[in-house]
Every structure is written in structure tokens, then in C-alpha cells.
Write a structure and sequence with these properties.
Blueprint: E1 4-8, H1 13-23, E2 28-33, H2 39-47, E3 51-55, H3 60-66
Parallel strand pairs: 1-2, 2-3
């Protein structure tokens, strides 16, 4: 399975994508918007073995480099 990059903010959507991708066997790299995420997303990413990076809203270049 190819890896998936997930740009995550707040809300339920990042959790749905993360859980679905992992259940299908994809490796997931989460790039989380620092100003938007909570500890629950950090914990879920760790629980399912996803790599998580945090970036500020203005760091689009860093986000692209990570993915």
C-alpha cells in the first residue's frame, strides 16, 4: 500500500481519515496545524503508529517538504 499524507486541523475528519487509512494498511504521515490540533489527535496518531509532525499555519514549505 502506498503511504498517505494527511494535513490535519481540528474536528473529526482527520480522525476518520487516519483510522480508515491505517485499517487499509497504509502508512500515514500526519502534518498537523499546530494552532488547530488537540492532544487527542497526537495520542491517536501514536496509538495507530502514524508519524506526526506539527507546523504553524504559515509553514507551507515545511509541510510540502515533510510530505
Amino acid at each position: 500500500m502506498p503511504p498517505i499524507g494527511l494535513i490535519a486541523g481540528n474536528g473529526r475528519f482527520p480522525f476518520l481519515v487516519l483510522d480508515a487509512a491505517r485499517s487499509l494498511g497504509h502508512e500515514v504521515t500526519v502534518v498537523a496545524i499546530k494552532e488547530e490540533i488537540g492532544a487527542d489527535l497526537v495520542e491517536r496518531a501514536a496509538a495507530v503508529g502514524a508519524t506526526l509532525h506539527t507546523v504553524s499555519l504559515g509553514q507551507l514549505g515545511k509541510c510540502i517538504a515533510l510530505l
